[in-house]
Amino acid sequence: MIDFKSLSSNQRFVLNILVPLSYLFPLVLAYLGPKNFGFGFPGLVYAGLSVGAVGVLLWIAATWTLGSSLAVLPGTDQLVTKGVYRVFRHPIYVGIVLTLTGLFIACGSALCLVYVLVVVIPLNIFRARAEEQVLLQQLGPPYQRYRDSTIL
């Protein structure tokens, strides 16, 4: 794993920009690319929008709950266990995947769905693992107990 404390301020800055851009890129691609809404099935448009809406709501709720603890790179001095964090350890990552997947199903963008599978999901898995490693080091047994009592 990456030792985030050893990164220079320039490296941290670049990561703070590149990670969010990796989520924005497929949205721009879907917006500019050809549309095949619901892959030709109107029901998939509504299903995709529903999944995307759930993802956005989860993402917003998690961001709101984190408050000042929100950061792109892992590290904190406090453990957040309220709100959606009572159930999920990584609700923002789950929300991002649901949002993008739902929108790309609704748009009918196979290329963007592949991007979610090849880039977004592996990136979020990497981020979650790195975050958990840092939190275990920083918070110790309280984080382990929290981790054992939650999903994702």
What does this structure look like?
With 152 residues, this protein is mainly alpha-helical. The chain has one domain. It is built from five helices and no strands. The protein starts with 8 loop residues before the first helix and ends with a helix.
Question: Which short descriptors sum up this protein?
Answer:
152 residues, mainly alpha, 5 helices, 0% strand, globular
* Distance from first to last alpha carbon: 19 Å
The number of distinct helices, counting runs of at least 4 residues, comes to 5
Poorly predicted regions are none
Number of beta-strand segments: 0
Fraction in helix: 55-70%
Provide a concise account of the structure shown.
The chain has helices at residues 9-32, 42-66, 91-107, 110-139, 141-148. The protein has 152 residues and is mainly alpha-helical.
